[in-house]
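Reply to thread "Modeling small-molecule complexes from scratch"

Following up on the discussion above, here's a worked example others can learn from. I took a protein sequence and the SMILES for S-adenosylmethionine and predicted the complex. Inputs first:
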Amino acid sequence: MLPTPDLSHLKQADYNHVYEPSEDTFLFLDAFEDDQKYLETLKPAISLEIGSGSGCVTAFVGKILGESSCLKLCTDINPRAARATVATVRQNKLTADVVETSLVEGLLPRLKGKIDLMYFNPPYVLTPSEDVGSRTIEASWAGGIDGREVIDQFLPFVKDLLSPKGAFYLVVIEENKPEEICNILHQDGFDSAKIRTRAAGRERLHILKFTRRTAPEDKH
Ligand SMILES: C[S@@+](CC[C@H](N)C(=O)[O-])C[C@H]1O[C@@H](n2cnc3c(N)ncnc32)[C@H](O)[C@@H]1O
């Protein structure tokens, strides 16, 4: 079992402003641990976490990838979260470039088709639409109608950013209608798999994984 990244530099006061790693975060880590061999074979040249929060997930993925030459990128809309991510990668003796931005604003067109590994534990809680788009701790959970407003804003970027061999991992809850999300990305040419599921209180969490559908002729 891989150890959870060292987060001892983050104090309770930080978690008043930055999402504290929780059941969803840890399920995400479990999914990456399950996929360790896959990730080692994938050998991503560039990875991107959207909404990196404390930086826990990127530090964990960084440990899996080891001293590879992967350029790790992170974004977060919350400036305090962006700073926490910088501190966490440093605390874990890793490197990452952290951009304070909404979703992937500013990364396209430069990174078009270049991301080999992309992952997002989004704000997925069902809330009024007015709650979406804050740059504070509220951005950690406020997902709007069906908890899908931020997720749906992001989905069109998946086809633009992922490289041909790339994989995209997404945390969702049952109320986000995972089948519908899979259908949307299916239309953009992606296969999907539900690779982990866990009940956490009243939430039923899932980790979805998307890879580009190979054309039938590619299989020969
Ligand atoms: C559920 S938290 C996940 C944090 C961390 N990745 C984890 O798994 O513990 C969601 C994160 O997404 C960020 N976020 C929300 N909306 C965003 C947006 N439009 N662009 C970038 N980050 C966003 C929040 O600030 C928060 O850090």
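What I'd highlight from this example: The helical segments are 23-34, 36-42, 56-65, 79-91, 149-161, 178-187. The mean pLDDT is 96. Questions welcome below.
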